[in-house]
Fold these 4 entries.
Entry 1:
Amino acid sequence: MKRMGPLSARTVLAVTASILLLAGTAQAAPAKYARHADAAAELKKAGITWTSSGNCSDWNKKTCTSFTQINKASVAGLIAFKKASGCNVIVTGGTEKGHASGTYSHRNGYKTDISTKVACVNNYITRKFAKAGTRSDGAALYKSPAKNVYANEGSHWDITHYNSKA
């Protein structure tokens, strides 16, 4: 049997990368704001306001708007949207109880709702983002260049934040 010489660092790196690709990689859980107040402070610092029909932030009440356990990328996405659009952004929904379930849900920290009562927001989304069809409930869908999805639900835009960009 012929003996081979030492492997180069480049070869070892290529083999390791191939093994990792074949084996798959575990995805880390998204970074979260554990407390509503921490996420709210970041939004406030960026000039983003929020409202709730119940005038509360309890994540166990449907009438509240809560940021408890929201993904940090979702908060960063709202801030990026405000900066890119120059619009007044009013959050009307976060992680509070009462939204549809699923992996990319409000409760899991991936979704936020922002008000459609701000013409600037509506104009920015419909002019700058690509029309992406209609959801089964009739909501018009738009996809941002960052691949986040904005669904017009009438009183608000339901945003699925896949990343921290607008």
Entry 2:
Amino acid sequence: MGKIAVCPGSFDPLTYGHLDIITRGAKVFNEIRVVVLNNSSKNPLFTAAERVELIKEATKHLPNVQVDTFSGLLIDYAKSVGASAIIRGLRAVSDFEYEMQITSMNRVLDENIETFFIMTNNQYSFLSSSIVKEVAKYKGDISELVPQIVEEKLKEKFMEGASN
């Protein structure tokens, strides 16, 4: 397609489901901007800077992926980097209604930026950052759910919490 696409999310933490969407998007677009959005309605475990570093480490094998952070409207960020597309991952039918609302609003804000939905790989369809954090908190095995660097950082975070 020869275009820039934005792949937004909170990525708290990055999972293999996220990485699946980013990797597949990187095969279609010349450049992927993974953007960590600061969502004021969420209480993240990792800071935005920590999430950016984790994503950079996990995507370093993808030369056309850049990682950034942004507060505000996604459409404003997309315009600021010259993106013509937004990539959103869908896990299940339950994601569709929410994603449809966001896509419709973005279309009102700028009809020139298209949204592309990528269905996640079936093996990750149940996976969410919330589930990963819950399993990691109780020392469950998350090695098949997140990149190794993310697993290590989750263990560190929950060890810090246990000592406080």
Entry 3:
Amino acid sequence: MSKQRLEAFTDGVIAIIITIMVLELRPPESGQLGALWGERYVFLIYAISFFNVAVYWNNHHHLFQIVKRVSGGVLWANMFFLFGLSLIPFVTSWVGANHVADYGPEMSYGIVILVIDIAYYILIRTLIRLDRRNQDIMSLVGRGYYKPIASIILNVIAILAAFIWPTLTIILDMVTLLLWIKPERRIEQHLQKND
């Protein structure tokens, strides 16, 4: 089975997710420039969510640079990853509309990020199980690859933080995302070496 079809489908779904998020942005009721200030939380959570999706896409793209083949299991693991990503527009909209409400919107945002991180971890493990002869996958994202597990642990802490201060969930999720801003250096170095 070709990995290019999976990558093209993933790219398309992520493009649709970003489009849905931007379509959720509504102009202020007033034509006054100051009315934009009232929408600052909506714009902020949109920017955070856009950045989240971009980082996930970037890392997914780098991961699939070392993948040689895919299977039905990989397709389903990737679908689980996309399912999590597809929930981002919903929770982004909810947080933007209820930024001073109860902890529910921020906690839900954290849960969606946790689902995505678990799905990405499952995707990596499924790829490793499929092709143990692929030394690139084994050495670059196999044993000793701590980012997915660290993210899952930090996301659980972020979700629990919603009980203390809901905004802290979003802040901690952003801190966790800092682990992923730069895709795995070892993959980039490996790809440069092989070019």
Entry 4:
Amino acid sequence: MRTIKPTPQVLLRRIERSDALPPPHFRYSPAVQVGSDVYVSGLVGLDPATGGLAAETAAGQTRQIFRNIQALCAEQGWSLERVVVARVYCAGEGAADGMNEVWSEFFTQLAPPARTFTVVKSLPLGAAVEIEFQLSI
């Protein structure tokens, strides 16, 4: 009897280009699609028009992060309903209140995704909040 070896599934990795997001300050892909999963790199509250932080407060930066992920979703034909996981990083305990306040605003009508929350000493570019998203499209 002959044994047939299964062929491994080849997952195509596609880099999503975006005009909706501010250009990266460092070398990384803002979004990568593998099969039906999309991984969005950590977003800080950058204003796409200026490339700088949109606000000084954690709440203001979180609001900009959500504007940016909404713009990316609209550009790519996705929606926030497709976000299944969010990983939140706050620079210090004080940033958590502002981030949670804005988080609740964006998920009043939508079921919130699974979430990991981590307090860190500092974030890139002096940001108060960074959020990484995973979508299933």
